[in-house]
Amino acid sequence: MPSFDSEITKAIWGGKLPLRITCLTDDASEWEPIHIEAPRCSYFPLIAQKLHDIYTGLGLQVDKENIWFDYQGEPLKWHYPIGLLYDLNVFGTATPTMDEAVIPWCINIHWRHFPADKLLRNPSIDAAQDIFMSMLKEADYLRHGNTKKVMNLSKRDQTQLWQSLSVDDHDKYWEVNEHLLENEHQQWRHIPVRLYLPNNGVLQEAVPYHDTEGTAYTIADVISRIMPKLSLTTAIPVMHGIPLTMDIPAEWASKNLAYADNFLHIVLSKSRE
Fold it and tell me: Domain range holding 156?
């Protein structure tokens, strides 16, 4: 099985997004925007605490239990990685080119009128951690056919995975995550992968790493298995803010390009007419 490439995993982990966050109060008065840098692999509840402290320090009454964000009026799903949300909202609507990248990403922050019809309730750090661990278990099950590797982690190791996201520590994360990816000389079963469509749809299927003859799948093969009628000349797969090369081996990608939850979250861009 392909080995880990520490230079790649560090580059993925080190991906950052400059955010320009605007606070609009109920009386439509606008505070000065706040500019921060957010790790692509992180989650909004993790940066919400920092923003809460900033705004309360400025004398603004903030209900941190109901903090939520929007981009161009569309609420952002707090349980998705921040980098995935950016790709969905920026590259998921048009063919990605460098000159179309939205930098900084201008979003709005709210702590009232929570859109419960569009977002999961309770956007807290604890809730985000629970969902993160659930995704790790799902990835474990797809790869190995069970969740033993995640379930056998000590409480300390489980905490270390999440805390490493909180403090942006690549090495501490991989101290634990590398054990989750050990295959013990057995082939992995299925690829933890999700495809995100321009119409906000999400597709997930159990795609193996090899065909019936043992030929290793590429990213193009994986996407074709999930969407056989899709033309990759008109829909460009994007991950971590860049178009994916179609001949990347799926096993290598699964080890080195996944988000912290061990899923390949691939956004299919919408090409121009």
Answer: 126-180
